[in-house]
Amino acid sequence: ILKIEYDDQAKKESFNYCRQYYADNKATVKAIDELENDYQYHSPIWWYTKESAVYRLLSSAVQTHDANMIIKMGFFMQDLHREIKRIYYETERTTKVTLYRGHGMLADEFEKFRKREGEVFAFNWFLST
Question: Is residue 33 part of a domain?
Answer without folding.
Answer: yes
